Amino acid sequence: MIQFKDNVRLLRPSIGTATLTSSVFNLLNTMIGAGMLGLPAAFGASGLLPGMCLLVTAACLAAFGLHLLCEAADATRRPASFYSVAEAAVPGLGLLMDIAVFGVCFGSACGYLIIVGDSVPAALASFAVDGALLDRRLWIGVATAAVAPLTFLKDVHSLRHTSQLSLACVAAVSLLIVAFFVGTEADLIDPCDGGAPDCRGAIAGVAADGRAVLGAIPIFIFAFTCHQNVFSITNELREPTGARTLQLVVATTGAGGVIFLAVATSGYATFGEHVASDVL
Fold first, then answer.
1. How many CB atoms lie within 10 A of CB 108?
2. Model-level pTM?
3. What gap in Å lies between CA 44 and CA 47, rounded to an integer?
4. Is 18 within 8 Å of 238 (Cβ atoms)?
């Protein structure tokens, strides 16, 4: 743990037990979510080259924001939260920050449940399943029941194994998207499913519509959203010195950026201007 006295940073024994590796897994799991599936469409709106530039810029800004939050947590003494940091900056602002964080987390949770409701029935239908199992409300309820117990765990470090499982699923989806891109040349995998040759559109280096580029910017920004959990994760980090929290930030945004770049370029290069808002 770190405390400040007369503008001098002093180390005191840490109460955290989380390793740097598990913290990276947990923060990366928070970052990589449903927003990843919209990145190929964001490349379609902005063009390939501007898309790459916007993605790298968003990663750098996200890393800088995470670094500033870690420094603010050190300055206000750990364990820190958005409430404690906001109150230290502007007394009375803590409640407003908590409401804002609740809004972000609630919206993200709803987004995941919507994707479950849309994707699971479609996946089951491809296996000739019919009847009640194709009811999206059923799978939204199942997903809610499966995830709800995890919200009662005492610390984020306890989620390290579920984070690893989640990231393994992300890796599988990412490899699938890349495989469809490779298959367009090697005929190993047909992204048009053999019956829709017009699913592949033109690829633009730079989008002609500047308004479309502006509309894509929020997709790039929100793809790297994980800031709402950085306080909880770094509070539990063993010896959360400035160097270790910086390693956490760089490793997380770096790994997330590489995955996002692979998914965005492969998905857009596969379908071009015909890429859907959800690449799946």
1. 17
2. 0.81
3. 5
4. yes
CA nearest to 22, candidates 248, 246, 276: 248
- Report the 10 Å Cβ neighbour count for 275: 25
Query: Are 221 and 56 within 8 A, CB to CB?
Result: no
| End-to-end Cα spacing for the chain | 43
In angstroms, the Cα distances linking 14 to 10, 17, 205 are: 12, 8, 50
Which residues contact residue 200 at a Cβ distance below 8 angstroms, ignoring those fewer than 6 apart?
Answer: 184, 191, 192, 270, 271, 272, 274
Angle (nearest 5°) at CA 213 between 211 and 214: 65
pLDDT tens for 182-232 read 875 556 677 776 655 567 888 888 887 778 888 899 999 989 989 989 999
Which residues have C-beta within 8 Å of that of residue 176, sequence separation ≥ 6? Answer: none
Structure tokens at 193: 């499913």
